[in-house]
Write a structure and sequence with these properties.
The complex is a heterodimer of chains A (208) and B (263). Chain A has 208 residues and is an alpha/beta fold. Chain A is built from 6 helices and 9 strands. Helices cover 30% and strands 26% of the residues of chain A. Chain B is mainly α and 263 residues long. Classes of the chains: A alpha/beta (208), B mainly alpha (263). The complex binds adenosine-5'-diphosphate and magnesium ion (MG).
Chain lengths: 208, 263
């Protein structure tokens, strides 16, 4: 198994305070890592570090075997699909917004999109609505579907099921688990823990 | 040109008498704007009289270098004040905005003087300082609104911006909706003004020119030309300002630096 995300004695934080000291973990190819922990501990900050938005104070981070240097950032970012914690991301017509994102990589297929819409129990007219009119749970599913269709190697999902009903949480967790992407998911939802082969990392105050 | 009919001191005072009406209204409805109104009117009077005096000397002296410098000083003062009143961090924004603003104002004013009004002495005070001063005064508001909207929106929508940065993979596409929106917000009022111009009100420059003895047809042409010059100058300044400020406002990794805008 190839290591895809490697943290080695990493210290991360903002000017005013350190969030994690000597954080080490590895996510291997096709593995799903679940990060759990109280809010404000720095889970989102870990994802920001993986995306190269934040320079670690200390330690080594490697993504796909490459250091997080400025030179490597474009390459690394092109491998990442990100679903943010706040799903209020797209604007205006939902289908057009999805198409704009996918068409750049020639990955827009209306049929596949419709299938996923159906699979995740979104009403058919969702695509024709303005994204801002959708409910929180609908927005989350649209962003997940966009990430799935974008089909990049690494999935970074920040509380992607927080606004979904229980049966949908199960469905999403199960789907992502079977997708075979290297995934880091932050979630408080227990449904993720029953995903096959999922690895759980608990973080808490004071860091780990 | 015969010039406009002069206004005597007594007549000026009769004009100021009109201010009593708003003052009475404000005091009646307890709107705390009286002091500010009177103070602003006093400032306007003093400032414009001073301007009258210095313009007189500038016209007499009429040296290209002095005129160029004078325009620059006007821009420095205007930018300084506008940034102080905005929510932008002065250390980061003053120099790049001033630079963009001057490039745009000098270019448009000189182009205007040379090709539109077709004068040979494009640096003479009458053209450089007066027209340049008019263009710079009317474009600054839009520039500041645009730049602060741009950075404020990105700061507010941090996750959306990050999403775009990762998903589209480059900063230009990540900021594109913010760029569009900031230009739109700053420019829409000007577009609306152009569309309604001439329907009811008579624009200020035209009033001045007609009173000064110009024929209405000439005054109209100047009005149209100046409107377009202001519009072009504002747009150029906005795009240059956002471009030049972005080098300082963003970190190398793409996030907006802290303390750039007050939100
Ligand atoms: N840009 C920032 N500057 C300073 N502190 C920040 C910044 N972003 C987040 N924080 C702080 O870092 C801590 C961790 O934030 P975050 O990673 O979002 O936590 P979590 O995702 O676990 O809820 C919080 O206390 C938060 O206030
Ligand atoms: Mg978080």
């Amino acid at each position: 198994m190839k290591p895809v995300i490697e943290f080695e004695n990493v210290t991360i934080g903002y000017e005013d305070r350190i969030l994690f000291k000597n954080l080490s973990f590895t996510v291997y190819e096709q593995e799903v890592l679940l990060i759990k922990g109280p809010s404000g501990t720095g889970k989102t900050t870990i994802l920001y570090t993986i995306m190269g938005l934040l320079k670690p104070v200390e330690g080594k981070v490697r993504i796909c075997g490459k250091k997080l240097s400025l030179k490597n950032l474009p390459y690394i970012r092109r491998k990442i699909s990100y679903v943010p914690q706040n799903p209020d991301i797209l604007r205006e017509n939902t289908e057009k917004a999805i198409e704009e994102i996918l068409e750049r990589e020639k990955k827009f297929e209306r049929k596949k999109l419709k299938e996923l819409i159906d699979f995740f129990q979104l009403p058919e007219e969702t695509l024709q609505k303005d994204f801002s009119e959708l409910s929180g749970g609908e927005k989350q599913r649209i962003l997940l579907i966009t990430a799935i269709l974008l089909d990049r190697d690494i999935f970074l999902l920040d509380e992607p099921t927080s606004a979904l009903d229980e049966d949908l949480k199960v469905k999403v967790a199960d789907f992502i688990g079977k997708l075979g992407k290297t995934t880091v998911v932050i979630s408080h939802d227990r449904e993720w823990e029953s995903v096959n082969n999922i690895r759980v990392m608990e973080v808490n105050n004071g860091g780990s | 040109m015969g010039g406009a009919k002069d206004i005597s001191i007594l007549s000026m005072m009769l004009c100021f008498l009109l201010l009593i009406i708003p003052v009475i209204i404000y005091s009646y409805i307890k709107l705390p704007l009286i002091k500010e109104t009177l103070l602003s009117a006093a400032r306007m009077t003093i400032q414009l009289f001073l301007m009258g005096i210095y313009l007189k000397y500038l016209f007499q002296y009429d040296s290209a270098i002095v005129n160029i410098l004078w325009l620059l000083i006007m821009m420095i003062v205007a930018t300084f004040q506008a940034i102080r009143r905005s929510n932008l961090n002065r250390k980061v924004f003053l120099v790049p905005i001033l630079l963009s603003y001057s490039i745009s104002i000098y270019t448009i004013t000189l182009y205007f003087n040379r090709f539109v009004i077709d004068v040979t002495r494009i640096f003479s005070a009458k053209y450089l300082v007066v027209i340049g001063g008019m263009i710079l005064g009317n474009s600054l508001r839009g520039i500041i609104i645009s730049v602060s909207t741009f950075y404020k929106d990105i700061a507010h929508e941090k996750e959306r911006y990050i999403y775009r940065l990762i998903t589209f993979g480059n900063k230009f596409e990540a900021v594109l909706p913010y760029l569009r929106n900031s230009i739109q917000i700053a420019i829409s009022p000007t577009i609306a003004t152009m569309a309604t111009m001439g329907i009811v009100s008579i624009p200020g420059t035209m009033t001045g020119q007609i009173l000064g003895g110009a024929s209405p047809m000439v005054a109209i042409k100047y009005q149209i030309a100046l409107m377009i010059a202001v519009f072009a100058a504002t747009n150029i300044s906005i795009v240059l300002s956002i471009y030049t400020t972005s080098r300082r406002a963003f970190e190398k990794r793409g996030l907006l630096r802290k303390g750039i805008v007050k939100i």
